[in-house]
Amino acid sequence: MPEPAAPLIAKWIDYFQCEFKIAKTRSTKLGDYRHPFRDKGHRISVNFNLNHYAFLVTTVHEFAHLLTWNDFKNKVKPHGAEWKKNFQRMMVPFFDMNIFPEDIHRAIDNYMSNPAASSCSDLHLSRALKKYDSNKTETLHLEQLPINTNFKIKDGRRFTKGERIRKRYRCVCLDDKRIYLFNPLAEVFLLE
Description:
Elements: H1 6-15, E1 19-23, E2 31-34, E3 43-47, H2 52-72, H3 81-96, H4 102-111, H5 123-130, E4 140-141, E5 150-152, E6 158-165, E7 168-173, E8 179-182, E9 187-190
Helix pairs in contact: 2-3, 4-5
């Protein structure tokens, strides 16, 4: 994470007596919060492969879950109004410290008007954060392909890109003919 943010995150870990784990890459989530259960306390994990700005945003996202759990237990929705308010409040100190570059700051500010369950669902924020990835290998995103182009994903399944429906692309799996909705920033491989 950005170095100036570390002392505040360390305070939160200590104050909430939270087990904070840097996790291996998970394709389905960037971070995770687990509330106290049996003999375990609060647990947060964040994927290690995120750039330091995405790591910080994800960390704050998960701490907002922790704070919401402390205030309401399981009586509110995980990404409901209470969580949104906590997430917005917990991001303020990092804005005050000018942690983020201007493009990310603007994207987060816009995203914060109504934060979603995942920062990836906000394409503007996701694009801004991806610009700072250190592994700048040439990645092909679904939105770059023309309609009716065949592609595959990491697990080997093959698809044909279809029309955009609201925020996602409707794609047909060539292996089982089922329809899947893809984020425009999904990493894909062109089929020859």
